Amino acid sequence: MKPIIIALATALLMAGCGGGGRSDDNAAKSAETVVLRVGTDDEPGKPAADQILAFARNVDLLSQGRIRIEPAWHVAGDGPNWDQRVARMVEKNEIEMGLIPARAWDTEGVTSLRALNAPFLITSDALLDKVVSSDLSGDLLAGLGAAKVHGLALIPEGLRHPFGTHKALLGPRDYDGRTIRTPTSKTTANVFGALGASVNDDDVDPKEHAATESSYALDPNGSATGNVTFYPKINSLVISDQAYDTLSAEQRDTLAKAAAQTRDSAIKKTPTDADAAAAWCHGGRRIVLASRSQIAALEQAAAPVTQQLEQDGDTARLIAAIRDLGQDVSAPAPAPCGSAAPAGADNASLNGVYHFKVTDAQLRDAGITDAGDIAENHGGFTMSLKNGEYCWTQTAPNHLNNPDECSTYELDGGKLVWSFPAGEPDVYRVKQTAGGDLQLTAVSSESIAYAKVWARNPWKRVSK
What is the mean pLDDT of residues 79-103? Predict the structure, then answer.
């Protein structure tokens, strides 16, 4: 009996003194050095890569070296759907953690993050920062359980704009029938589909893609439309459920704190959209601005996507909460820069503000007899020309479908090439009077009758 009694006493002493074996297990776990790999499709030098490195530093400091974060760059290799392939690696615990764009999860059964990519909902840095740092982020991350991962934080990367491959994309007509390069996401594909465009995630090809959906920080080619913001790019920092379950409470707390620090640091250090745009403008790059009516038309065309998202009650609640956060938040547009004109064009010689009128009689004389066409094209036009870019505003006694517009022009010698946001340009011969007025003669146009009416009366210069 003595050996049994001694063994029993020893067992009771060990259990009693520690208050149970679970605490000892947690203590042992906390003392171990844990290595966690964080996967991404990006390479070093990209914004997402910088966020992973910041997270690794924060974890190292908070854990005093007992948790080590190892970045895994371009972990899924080449091929399409790169973000989804990294996400699936985390889901299967082939890699313990990942930094996955939030928009990628909507192909993987996660619905809670779709609200972040509802079109034209988050269009400012200020609102983006409020959303990811508010209590709302917990609700957004909660749906990741459907993919067998645990969300630690949402980390902002920046706002997304269209970068036109050959010309800036302004209104809906510029998207119709064209192909846009964008990473894979059901929600974002639906946004561009609502504008009449198709999408793929192929390498950018000027022969295939009319534009790239991107941000200034990624240094894309093309002409940016600076005041068209479809949605932000937000990265989700996640860990597989399997890896998370092996961690102690202390280790989980360390990861949560480090993730929050990484998010807050990104908010503080990421340049604003306007600052990033100003830096991107150097080197001959170009930013143009869409008109108010063009932006309104884009929002109207994309509205059915939001309505479809709101058919899910949880997503509708999240969208409404984001709208509430953004009630007092403005989205300042970056300053336009650059020029579409080739070297040697003398666009600046026409700089100024001009005014001309179009009458019903002039339209009828040109063969335009439809009452709706006349109502849309008569009235007063105020043209602002500056360094190859134009904006007009039109006034009339009736409602106008397109009362303002912005795009580009090119003056080369005596020839004025007037490029509309979509379609072929008008070509005019132009002379400037001693007083600065412009006298135009229509040379060619898809709609020569309208071009002749525009050229019928001098464009009176009203200011420089």
Answer: 97
